[in-house]
Design brief:
Negative regulator of class I heat shock genes (grpE-dnaK-dnaJ and groELS operons). Prevents heat-shock induction of these operons. By secondary structure, the chain is α+β, with helices and mostly antiparallel strands. The protein contains twelve helices and ten strands.
Length: 344
């Protein structure tokens, strides 16, 4: 669709004014906002033309215009200019997250909490994707006379722990021996290759010791399967209850959908771009017809590993939210990289 410069300027002004006020925008208000020497009647005609093109709509006959889903899409693709964070905002984000920079799971949880607090919407974060990961280190920590914890660390910095129990007394010498065997046999093995058959063949290769280590191999298999799953962390869901854009029934349906983490994970996983914005019906979820999702990928090394996102009404401050997400993704990725480097 080819639009002239004036139409684009009017569309941008309507959307940004509506985002700020939540009120339909009329031609007189636009005259004050635009630095162009045209009459209110000319602007009114241009707004009518934008409505005919499906970019604006008029909620009531006597009201001004508000953007449609199509209008928001054109704005985000062609007109939106992210609002840079201030130095103070960046220092606050870095200072807050640095307190959790030694724990990947807690770091991602706190990043989502911070997003929810900053935006007053719901926020999500996903754990790093580990499908290309290898086993970096396996540690065994005694927790009782017959129990110990297996701690698996992957090449992507993910950490997963599993408890196991034996029918014989454990001590530090036994656990050290088990740990040495596991790291020798399993070190640098891709997680996807740690199948039941692989574990059986590894156990067979160590002879009679495999009888004592059976519970350890079970715990290792469980840890590998679980770390391969992408967990979706959701924070700030109650923020959605207080937004004027949602009616009681619609927000209940939205919250019910968000609790279905499997469906939410599919929605997130379908977005492959570094920055993705789903507006209303673009999500193909009836519960999200009045909702937008803004997603930004964070990277570890040269690969994208997970996602940070914001979920809220289609009337949201996209430029500010995109800037917040991009800076948070940069900070989280950097801190996860440091955790991975320290663990090597």
């Amino acid at each position: 669709m080819e639009l002239g410069a004036r139409k684009l300027k009017i569309l941008q002004a309507v959307i940004e004014a509506y985002i700020q006020t939540g009120e339909p925008v009329g031609s007189k208000a636009l005259c004050e906002l635009l630095d162009v020497s045209v009459s209110s009647a000319t602007i009114r005609n241009e707004m009518a033309s934008l409505s005919e093109l499906g970019l604006l709509e008029q909620p009531h006959t006597s009201a001004g215009r508000i953007p449609t889903q199509f209008g928001y899409r054109l704005y985000i693709n062609e007109l939106m200019k992210p609002k840079p964070l201030s130095d103070e905002e960046m220092r606050y984000i870095d200072g807050y997250l640095s307190e959790y920079a030694d724990d990947p799971d807690l770091l991602l949880e706190k990043a989502a909490e911070m997003l929810a607090e900053m935006t007053k919407y719901a926020a999500i974060s996903t754990t790093p994707t580990n499908r290309d990961a290898t086993i970096q280190r396996i540690q065994l920590v005694q927790t009782g006379p017959h129990t110990a914890m297996l701690v698996l660390t992957t090449s992507t910095g993910a950490v997963k722990s599993k408890l196991f129990r034996t029918n014989y007394l454990l001590n530090s010498d036994i656990l050290r021996m088990f740990s040495n065997v596991l790291n020798e046999k399993m070190g640098s093995v891709h997680l996807l290759n740690v199948t039941p058959d692989f574990i059986k063949s590894t156990a067979f290769s160590i002879g009679e010791l495999s009888l004592m280590m059976a519970p350890v191999f079970v715990a290792l298999g469980q840890a590998c399967r679980e770390v391969l799953k992408t967990n979706v962390l959701l924070e700030g869901r109650t923020n959605l209850l207080y937004l004027p854009e949602y009616e009681v029934d619609s927000v209940k349906r939205l919250l019910h959908f968000l609790e279905q983490r499997g469906e939410l994970a599919k929605l997130i996983g379908a977005q492959k771009e570094k920055l993705g914005v789903l507006i209303g019906g673009e999500s193909n979820q009836p519960e999200m017809i009045d909702t937008s999702v803004v997603l930004v990928r964070y990277s570890m090394g040269r690969q994208t590993r997970g996602t940070l996102g914001v979920i809220g009404p289609t009337r949201m401050d996209y430029p500010k939210i995109v800037s917040n997400l991009q800076y948070l993704a940069q900070s989280v990725g950097g801190m996860l990289n440091e955790i991975m480097d320290v663990g090597v």
